[in-house]
UniProtKB/TrEMBL annotation:
Pfam families: TctC. Keywords: Signal. InterPro entries: BUG, Bug_dom1. Residues 1-21 form the signal peptide. This is Tripartite tricarboxylate transporter substrate binding protein. Belongs to the UPF0065 (bug) family.
């Protein structure tokens, strides 16, 4: 009787140990995926250099973001493959998007921001945010409205009063296409100031020559991003009439720039930027890049560059970024309808 009981106990113990081992292996197998802990899978890593597309000319916001992220990634060796930044200007971003769409795969990324919503809405691209894979949101930047150092306009209200008198008398340049970000951020601001925005004279410099045109006296106002304005403001070559941040910014030079709200104009505009990939990108590759970007944003090297440009961290996971883009699309669609630019 004793032997039978001992044998039965031993069998039960063995079964329990086997089940425990199976459960442990199953749990261990799941830990390699992009699960609740947010860690990227080890199943995929880049096998060759990564092409980072800036869908505009050198010097603009997309280019600055792409080159800064690439630089920090290589400095910190978070990604051990080269991140080669390639400029693909044209169509307000559409040329670059078409390139990424055709290229496909897991080794091509591109910097994105509001034009991925604006440009399809104004009919200049058949490709939009739903045609690509969101990877991560990275920063919140702001627009800046800039004039040359010898301009008669000293603040945003000076400019708005002149535009109210004759909207066609002042030329406004931006590096984006008509109906895209540089155009719409200016439209939104002066509309809040009471200007007839349907009569504005907007010049599109999609080769990234907006600042050169301003400094060369070919246009009166440059609608751009904060980073692009800050360098020339430090050099004393331009005056920043206003920025679109919701509140004053901290930091060298940028703390001197007045917001629209500080000047009695009830408006703000956030220039978010992030990264996307081709529509067919493998989920494991998305998880890898998502995790790499998150890790990069925690480094001292990134924080130094971020503060230098006056950016704010605005990290979003792939899933959060997708939800954000869908919501922003609805908001921008309403704005484009309001000013009569939606196609």
């Amino acid at each position: 009787m004793f032997n039978k009981r001992s044998l039965l106990f031993s069998l039960v113990l063995v079964i329990a140990l086997v089940l425990s081992a199976c459960g442990s292996n199953q749990s261990s197998g799941n830990s390699g995926n992009n699960g609740n802990d947010g860690q990227a899978t080890d199943d995929w890593k880049p096998e060759k250099p990564i092409e980072v597309i800036a869908p505009a000319g050198a010097g603009g916001g997309w280019d600055t973001t792409a080159r800064t992220v690439s630089k920090v990634m290589e400095q910190t060796n978070i990604i051990d493959k080269r991140l080669a930044v390639v400029n693909k200007p044209g169509g307000g971003g559409a040329v670059g998007w078409a390139y990424v769409d055709k290229k496909g795969g897991n080794h091509t990324l591109f910097v994105t921001s509001p034009p991925i919503l604006f440009v399809p809405l104004n009919g200049q691209s058949d490709l939009g945010h739903n045609d690509f894979t969101p990877i991560a949101g990275v920063i919140a930047d702001y627009a800046a409205f800039v004039v040359s150092a010898d301009s008669p306009y000293n603040n945003m209200n000076d400019l708005i009063e002149a535009l109210k008198e004759d909207p066609q008398s002042i030329s406004v340049v931006g590096d984006s296409a008509p109906g895209s970000m540089d155009h719409m951020q200016f439209v939104k601001a002066v509309k809040a100031g009471g200007v007839d925005v349907k009569r504005l004279k907007y010049v599109s410099a999609q080769d990234g020559s907006g600042m050169s045109m301003l400094l060369g006296g070919k246009v009166d106002v440059y609608s751009t991003g904060l980073a692009e304005a800050t360098e020339q403001a430090r050099a004393g070559k331009v005056k920043v009439l206003a920025i679109t941040a919701p509140e004053p910014l901290e930091g060298e030079t940028v703390s001197e720039f007045k917001t629209l709200k500080e000047q009695g104009i009830d408006d703000q505009f956030v220039v978010w930027r992030g990264f996307m990939g081709p529509k067919d990108m493998d989920p494991e590759a998305v998880a890898y890049y998502e995790n790499a970007i998150k890790e990069m944003m925690e480094t001292d090297e990134w924080k130094e560059q971020r503060d230098n440009f006056g950016w704010n961290d605005n990290y979003m996971s792939s899933e959060e970024f997708k939800k954000f883009l869908d919501e922003e699309y609805k908001t921008m669609e309403e704005l484009m309808n309001e000013v009569g630019l939606k196609k």
